[in-house]
Design goal:
The chain contains ten helices and 14 strands. It is of the alpha/beta class and 303 residues long. The chain has two domains: 152 residues, Quinone Oxidoreductase, Chain A, domain 1 (Alpha-Beta Complex); 124 residues, NAD(P)-binding Rossmann-like Domain (Rossmann fold), CATH 3.40.50. Strands 3, 4, 5, 6, 7, 13 and 14 form a seven-stranded mixed sheet that branches. Helix 3 packs across helix 4.
Length: 303
Amino acid sequence: MRAIQLIDAQLTGADVAKPVPGKGEILIQVRAAGVTPTELAWYPTSHQKDGSVRTRAVPGHEFSGTVVQLGAGVEGILPGDEVFGMSDWFLDGATAEYCVTAPSSIAPKPARLTHAEAAAVPIGALTAWQGLLDRAKLQAGERLLVHGGAGAVGVFVIQLARLHGAEVIATTAARTMGFVSSLGAQQVIDYRAQPFEQAVRDVDLVFDAVGGETLQRSWQVLKPGGRLVTIAADSEGTTDQRVKDAFFIVEPNQQQLREVGDLLQAGKLRVFVDAEVPLNEAPAAYTGKTPRMHGYGKVVIII
């Protein structure tokens, strides 16, 4: 099969053996895979779980496709089922014609979504869900500040927060202010035109998808007892204990993905695809060279 592999820090197309599902695994024929460029710099991309060096990793850990083969012991799933999901970061990803994953990492694809749309959901939606609801325990009526409101995660943070009755403030670029407002943000700040800390005070929660100076400036806008969560990759190796406690990496979760799928099917959540590119253009997509249509939403590889 064709796959994209990370070889000597460069993404390269390669002919590789089609994977075979082991016990408790399933084989997916990939129809579309979402692009998360920062994944290339993450620890699991260059290391095995035991800490040894990992080579020729296949990126792309969110996907939509069709089940084609079951490993021993797999029940409740049938070949031909259309599914979407995200796989463990240490596994080879879905920027390939086929990928192997665990049944617990997938859910039925919402029928109203295309494969491209479904592939743009899992990482962003589950990150938003786990950050807002599992870690920060967002409550109705609380005030939330979202950094990166038009990003692949931010679009789901805003929508889920509004569904849970929060007041949402978001930072974004000027060209996407209208879009972010349409998602439900009640106050939108152009981060280039005005320092957000001059416009916002006493929030219950900050959800940071930017990192760096933006993260550091965010502590001052929290009310006493306020919470901050961050997914910024530059926080992973920090020595700042506050940032360590705030940082997390999303994990597969079938039940949450099913609930997200139900919300999408009911039209209560929306997903946005900014560009669709073929497999051979995946290296350009990961390096930000793919032309974008809107400036918001996800880039998706079509297999």
